[in-house]
Amino acid sequence: MVHLTFYAALLSGIATTIAAPTRRSMVVHESRELPLYFAHAGAPNPDTTLNLRIALTANDRNGLEQKLWDVSTPGSALYGQHLSFDETKAFAAPHPDTVQAVTSWLNENNITSVSTSGAFDEWLKFSVPVSTANSLFNANYQLYTEIGGPTQLTRTLAYSIPADLQQHINLIHPSTDFVRQIKGAKLGGPVPNSNSNTARALAAPASCNSVVTPACLQAMYGIPTTKATQTKNTIGVTGFVDEWPQTADMAAFLTKLNTAVPSDTLWTEKNVDFGVDPQHPGDAGLEANLDTQYTIGLANGVPVTYYSVGLGFTDGIEGFLDVMNFFNALPTPDNVLTTSYGLDEASISTSLANQLCDAYMAAGARGVSVLFASGDGGVAGAQSQNCTTFQPAFPSGCPFLTSVGATQNTTETAASFTSGGFSNYWTRPSYQTAAVNEYLSTLGETYPGLYNNTGRGFPDVSAQGINVEIINAGESITAIGTSCSSPIFASVIGLINDRLIAAKKPPLGFLNPFLYANPSAFTDITTGENPGCGTNGFSAGVGWDPISGLGTPLFDKLLAAAGV
């Protein structure tokens, strides 16, 4: 009996040892310096709850990228054969072993309330006190406040993960990201003078030098006025920071500026993060009205979906991640998705930037043309700021989307505020290698060390972006920014997709390989600069350049290039 008790006690001790969590070997996964536009604001209460997410590695991320190139590159045997949701998920979802490995580690540390999220179940979500997060990730979460701004964050400048889980974890979020509140279009004003402009094949009324309307764009770019016929072909518009389009403003806009579109034409609303769309003149949003009026009002007959992203986001990046999780989960996503907001690339970590960029890649593989305004800070980033080196905008540097810059005047010159340059996070994709190398050969040794000369160049294309007329809160006003340019270009692609689908062909999907293969389908913009960081910025020139991209669209030539 004594011996049995001894062995029972021994076995009990072994069981206790096995059950106790063991500290794994940890490695630093991400670290950074505090951005200049944030200041330390003290330590948080250790009991403050942090809502965290772990991004799990995809089952076959590289396989999905190859599929994107296959279905998006003209001349490929698979061109236009876009993936279904299930086919995309087979690549993008984490392997069950990955889910099990990371979940087990969390369980070992008494974190048992864990749920999956994301379009492809690629995120694990859980909530823990700050003290637990610090211990779990060898982190030091602190309070930070934006200098001269409203943003307050709880972030860490470094964190670690178990060495044996590195192949399973992309990032912990939020952690090392310092994102300021995003901004949309601005009110227009006097048009800056330009001494030299690009001659163009299509003329437009002289009044378009002062105020840009749908009629101006139809004349300049050859955009058809006839109604689209394919109701399943749609354009998606994202809206953030309590920007809401107004039905009364839409009716007034169509009545005044494009009577070919019935004045009662509206968008379909989808809400993310408790988004809403209140209908009162005091709720009118300049950006939201701009984006919906220049998709509905320009792409005559193409249905528009408005994604209202509310302030209930918990992704730490203004809802950018949440809206893509929502969008990519749709069984039938819009054929075009345009966004007129952006961030500075340096404000988010490379891991998070890649995670979002891969979300755009997944959309592209499914046949979605993802468009973003390139930003309004010249070479100083998405929004102008003090800088000593050029600041790329995000997500324009992502190689899996189309970045849209701005032009002005009827003969068109590049707008000086257009954010353009080269990414510090992504290398140059093959579809633009020749075009960008040609530009760099003319740039020579200008600006040594101020930009990454091996990075992905942006913008890809341009469209009008100064003094674009809209109706906002019942008043006729003008807007300025690349925010104007992205929905305009989205309308061009939406109308081309209409013709393709009517001809029993697939939509264009991810655009860039097609666009760079057809530079003659654009009016080349050869004048203009985008100053910033104490310099004149980059100059427009013959061919692609990092202020106007390939140039502005010529509808008939793009349509012919698409094979319609």
UniProtKB/TrEMBL annotation:
Cofactor(s) recorded in Swiss-Prot or TrEMBL: Ca(2+)
Primary location group: secreted
GO terms of molecular function: metal ion binding; serine-type endopeptidase activity; tripeptidyl-peptidase activity
Sequence ranges assigned to domain Peptidase S53 in this UniProt record: 211-564
Alphabetically ordered keywords of this record: Calcium, Hydrolase, Metal-binding, Protease, Serine protease, Signal, Zymogen
Swiss-Prot/TrEMBL GO biological process terms: proteolysis
GO cellular component: extracellular region
Subcellular location: Secreted, Extracellular space
Signal peptide bounds: 1-19
Binding site for Ca(2+): D524, I525, G543, D545
Top-rank lineage group of the source organism: Eukaryota
Record: active site: E287 (charge relay system), D291 (charge relay system), S483 (charge relay system)
Cofactor binding mode and count: Binds 1 Ca(2+) ion per subunit.
Name of the protein described by the UniProt record: Family S53 protease-like protein
